[in-house]
Amino acid sequence: MRTLLLMLYLWTSLLQETSLEVFVSCRTPEIFSDYRNTNFKQEISPGHGGLKVKIKSRTLRLQNLNHVICTDERYLAAQGPAVSRVFSQVRLNALSVADYLMNISHFLKNQIEYTEADLPQETDAVLEQGKAHCIGYANVAQALLACIGIVSHPVNGFFLRENNKRIEPVPHRWLEIELPGQRRIFYDPQYQDFSSRYLVTNLGIALDSIERFQGVIIRKNKKILDE
């Protein structure tokens, strides 16, 4: 039932837009800058003792991802048996990018257990052990997308966990997917959607080198767009 409700929500005609404005007390503001793509926008304003960040995003609307897919036989042939086995599962009955992405989400939700244990996060290792953290989830999804010729890139940043109006930035990794028409969208294989509670770091920044920092919510808003 939970999976069915997730699928119905993802396929709904209603589009959810969320906005979040926060102030974070980061001592290294140079690791952040403005960023935007089709379903995400981040604006950075330096302030005294930290950064003011305005974030706006829209949930994925799978109806708009109706591109026909086909297998990249050359890439698939170079993969190990674990990737080939999972690909045969997620490719089944998938006619479009929307179908395929939904199948990937379903597989990750039901077959990969989240863990913070210090385990290998390479794609083959994750599929064999059935456990991963955000890096492993991103690696698996990226490999499966490549099996149908879709290019994606890992994105480093933070998931902004809220607790009584305060923000705890949690190091995180997700994907940016390249689509036809020069569209780029964020997709989080671990949480399987996208919201405004993300903060993107600049390329080449190692998350484990960033000193932990905190933040507060200035304002937030959520609305439904019937488009």
Would you mind describing this structure in some detail?
The structure is a single chain. The chain is α+β, with helices and mostly antiparallel strands and 227 residues long. It has six helices and eleven strands. The strands form two sheets. Strands 1, 2, 3, 4, 7, 8, 9, 10 and 11 form a nine-stranded antiparallel sheet that branches. The protein has a two-stranded parallel sheet with strand order 5-6. The longest helix has 15 residues, at 97-111. Mean pLDDT is 87; it is low at 1-12. It has helices spanning 2-11, 73-77, 81-91, 97-111, 123-129, 134-146; strands spanning 15-24, 35-37, 40-47, 50-58, 113-114, 131-132, 152-163, 166-179, 183-187, 198-200, 215-225. The chain has a domain at 63-210: C8orf32 fold, CATH 3.10.620.30.
Write the layout of secondary structure elements.
Elements (H helix, E strand, L loop, with lengths): L1 H10 L3 E10 L10 E3 L2 E8 L2 E9 L14 H5 L3 H11 L5 H15 L1 E2 L8 H7 L1 E2 L1 H13 L5 E12 L2 E14 L3 E5 L10 E3 L14 E11 L2
Parallel strand pairs: 5-6
Antiparallel strand pairs: 1-4, 1-11, 2-3, 3-4, 7-8, 7-10, 8-9, 8-11
Helix pairs in contact: 3-4, 4-6, 5-6
